[in-house]
């Protein structure tokens, strides 16, 4: 009886490998928009990328173990849930009030050590206290001093002129 159960379980596990959930792999461009608009420092960016973007952006990294069921199915579910609550790829579409509210939740989740989700940290490692403090102080600063749109446009102009320069050099070559 028990033996049959394990054979069935093994069979289910093998079959589930063929049921691959859709991947969360869109363009990184919208994350860059968030990083510019919310003045994410390089230090904070590194932490977000390694601990949060997998579930809170439209770009998840997929090392091999993320592709193995049941991890792949668990992750697909968490990504969907996580993005519904907070998605940096959608940052631009949030109102100023929503942005402030997300940052408030952001601080709260880290202070209560609710994020990153527990089983995720078993593989990716815990968020260190120093990194947690860095994230919190960045978010607090953003809540006090939200970026005014004028600053954004200067950034965009700078990037635009950079692109023009590179394309010029390309055409002259
Ligand atoms: C493995 C996936 C996963 C990772 C990694 C993860 N989260 Fe989440 N996050 C979720 C899910 C699922 C929810 C929604 C359910 C909940 O609140 O528990 C959520 C909710 C949130 C919310 C919204 C809470 C609310 O009440 O609306 C914030 C803010 C958040 N996470 C921040 C972070 C930060 C910051 C990190 C990185 C330090 C992070 N998360 C890492 C899955 C994840």
What does this structure look like?
The chain has 173 residues and is mainly alpha-helical. The chain has one domain. Helices cover 67% and strands 0% of the residues. The protein has nine helices and no strands. The chain has helices at 2-16, 29-37, 42-51, 53-56, 71-85, 96-111, 118-124, 129-144, 149-172. Helix 3 (42-51) packs across helix 8 (129-144) and helix 6 packs antiparallel against helix 8 (129-144). The longest helix is centred in the C-terminal third of the chain and has 24 residues, at 149-172. The chain is elongated, with a radius of gyration of 20 Å. The relative contact order is 0.11. Mean pLDDT is 87; it is low at 156-161 and 163-173. The chain binds heme C. Heme C binds at residues 51-52, 54-56, 78, 81-82, 85-86, 102, 105-106, 109-110, 115-117, 120, 127.
């Amino acid at each position: 009886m028990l033996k049959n159960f394990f054979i069935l379980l093994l069979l289910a596990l093998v079959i589930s490998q063929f049921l691959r959930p859709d991947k969360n792999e869109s363009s990184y461009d919208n994350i860059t928009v968030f990083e510019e608009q919310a003045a994410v420092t390089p230090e904070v960016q590194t932490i977000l990328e390694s601990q949060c973007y997998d579930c809170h952006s439209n770009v998840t990294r997929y090392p091999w173990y993320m592709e193995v069921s049941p991890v792949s199915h668990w992750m697909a579910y968490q990504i969907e849930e996580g993005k519904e609550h907070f998605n940096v790829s959608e940052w631009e579409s949030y109102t100023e009030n929503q942005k402030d509210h997300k940052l408030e939740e952001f601080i709260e989740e880290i202070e209560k050590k609710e994020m990153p989700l527990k089983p995720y940290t078993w593989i990716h490692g815990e968020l260190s206290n120093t990194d947690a403090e860095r994230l919190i102080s960045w978010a607090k600063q953003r809540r006090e001093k939200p970026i005014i749109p004028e600053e954004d446009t200067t950034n965009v102009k700078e990037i635009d002129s950079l692109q023009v320069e590179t394309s010029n050099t390309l055409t002259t070559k």
